[in-house]
Inverse folding.
């Protein structure tokens, strides 16, 4: 039954995205492409972007608990109008693959899974607050982790099914389906060698993820425990980046492409603030766009009114909830606000944002390196990723023949490399060099290596294409873990609920008078009056909502 729920959800987001595009442009843009990719591959992301930002705007005024009862009927009406005015979707082979086969296979990952540790720390608690309150001032004073919350929280807050959180996984599956469908398009199209060779490299990257040291794990996009969205931002980051590079390479500068790339960049930022690093790619593209099209700067601004307004609202939301434009970058914070908390920012800077190796530490460099190597899944990545890249290089050397010329000019190759280096430096110096925060970067590195061979000709193109298609199928099948397939069979393809496990979690009354806190954990889950640790904070009436003032003590 979870499979049916996932497929229906994916088709719904697809047809709604199509309807929005058709209604917005009265059908005339339904067949356009974004950087040579048909717009249908972005219908799902259009729906998610609008769902999240409708919720964002609404939450300035109202709680989100009942918003779905307004959005869902309205969206179904929009779909009905579109189906009446325009042609129904033709179920050709690629539509069958995109809309049914891929999400059906990936839906297996909704079985036998569990809610992540971070999900109980701040994802579900923030979704609960969004459902029960209009926007809350000083929200990070209650829980500093709310400063990292995402547009995904706004979307997820609309998807609660009582105590069943399976739709949080379905939301993630939609993003993975979009990614694999895009790889499928890159593979089957024969016009663009940049996309074709990118698909070859990434399909091999995905397939090899299941082999190697400690059973595999080479940094390819993987489904984490339910509620985490680090891979989701990596996917959107990668897609946006490769589209921009292709636009620059093809020298195609269309108004609707600029609009789409800005929206994708904004959505990446809203999923997680690491999406902000796309600015190092978007600004050069914008400069070239203005130069090539002889556009005026204010003309560009005028054409981007909608995403710019959304961006401003997102920044206003950040300031209201954290006192910062971009939390926790202290130079973007505004100390004059009554809910500003400098001690928290110092705590974050000292305990969470630092590189794996510090030359000023009293611990030896070798000992720091060993500690990082053994942290989480770093050892698997640091061994398997270079081996994967090496195997991909060997593959391309074996199946291609040298030809003169290159599909990328030197300036673009150097720009691509510089973008990778800048992002690698930022990744290394933040969040202790956590591998799962670099998903988009690893995808781009493999793409860069693959594109280097795109100027060469394939020795047996048909055999390679067929082999890659088979490997892509295996890659999709391998994405859900074996325990998910076992759980699917055990459930006899029925409904499997995804609920909170409160076992071993006790909550005590706060010594400061308001709320409760977890005794042996920091997970509040869906406890409405919970704070992650016992501290002197409580809600006060403020305007039409509530505010949490700081306790002037660093910590969670």
């Amino acid at each position: 039954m979870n499979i049916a729920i996932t497929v229906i959800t994916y088709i719904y987001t697809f047809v709604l995205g199509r309807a929005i595009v058709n209604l917005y442009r009265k059908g005339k843009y339904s067949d356009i492409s974004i950087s040579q990719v048909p717009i249908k591959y972005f219908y799902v992301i259009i729906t998610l972007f609008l769902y999240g930002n409708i919720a964002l705007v609404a939450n300035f005024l109202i709680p989100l608990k009942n918003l779905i009862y307004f959005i869902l009927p309205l969206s179904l009406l929009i779909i009905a109008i579109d189906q009446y005015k325009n042609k129904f979707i033709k179920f050709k082979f690629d539509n069958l693959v995109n809309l049914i086969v891929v999400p059906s296979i990936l839906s297996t990952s909704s079985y036998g899974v569990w809610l992540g540790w971070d999900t109980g720390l701040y994802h579900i608690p923030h979704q609960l607050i969004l459902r029960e309150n209009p926007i809350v001032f000083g929200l990070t004073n209650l829980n500093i982790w709310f400063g990292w919350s995402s547009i995904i929280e706004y979307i997820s807050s609309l998807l609660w099914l009582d105590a069943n959180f399976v739709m949080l996984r379905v939301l993630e599956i939609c993003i993975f389906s979009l990614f694999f469908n895009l790889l499928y398009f890159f593979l089957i199209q024969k016009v663009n060698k940049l996309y074709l060779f990118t698909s070859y490299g990434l399909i091999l990257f995905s397939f090899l993820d299941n082999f190697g040291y400690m059973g595999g794990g080479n940094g390819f996009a993987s489904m984490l425990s339910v509620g985490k969205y680090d891979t989701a931002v990596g996917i959107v980051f990668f897609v946006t980046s490769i589209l921009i590079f292709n636009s620059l390479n093809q020298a195609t500068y269309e108004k609707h492409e600029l609009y789409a790339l800005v929206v994708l960049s904004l959505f990446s930022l809203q999923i997680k603030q690491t999406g902000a690093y796309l600015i190092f790619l978007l600004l050069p593209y914008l400069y070239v766009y203005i130069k090539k099209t002889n556009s005026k700067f204010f003309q560009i601004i005028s054409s981007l009114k909608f995403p710019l307004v959304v961006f401003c609202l997102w920044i206003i939301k950040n300031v209201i909830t954290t006192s910062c434009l971009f939390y926790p970058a202290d130079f973007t914070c505004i100390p004059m606000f009554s809910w500003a908390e400098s001690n928290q920012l110092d705590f974050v800077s000292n305990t969470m944002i630092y590189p794996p190796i510090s030359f000023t530490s009293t611990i030896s460099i070798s000992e720091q390196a060993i500690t990082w190597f053994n942290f989480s899944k770093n050892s698997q990545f640091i061994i398997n990723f270079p081996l994967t890249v090496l195997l991909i290089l060997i593959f391309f050397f074996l199946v291609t023949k040298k030809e003169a010329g290159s599909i990328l000019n030197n300036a673009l190759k150097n720009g691509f490399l510089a973008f990778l280096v800048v992002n690698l430096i930022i990744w290394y110096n933040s969040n202790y060099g956590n591998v799962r925060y670099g998903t988009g970067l690893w995808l781009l590195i493999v793409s860069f290596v693959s594109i280097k061979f795109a100027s060469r000709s394939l020795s047996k193109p048909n055999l390679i294409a067929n082999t890659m298609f088979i490997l892509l199928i295996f890659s999709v099948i391998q994405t859900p873990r074996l325990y998910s397939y076992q759980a699917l069979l055990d459930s006899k393809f029925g409904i499997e609920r995804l609920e909170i496990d409160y076992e071993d979690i006790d909550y005590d009354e706060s010594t400061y008078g308001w709320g409760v806190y977890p005794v042996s954990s920091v997970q509040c889950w869906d406890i409405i009056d919970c704070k992650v640790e016992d501290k002197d904070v409580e809600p006060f009436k403020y305007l039409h909502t509530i505010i949490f003032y700081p306790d002037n003590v660093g910590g969670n």
Q: What stands out?
A: The longest strand covers residues 539-542. Strands lie at 33-34, 37-38, 400-401, 457-458, 507-509, 516-518, 539-542, 545-548. The mean pLDDT is 91. The chain has 20 helices and eight strands.
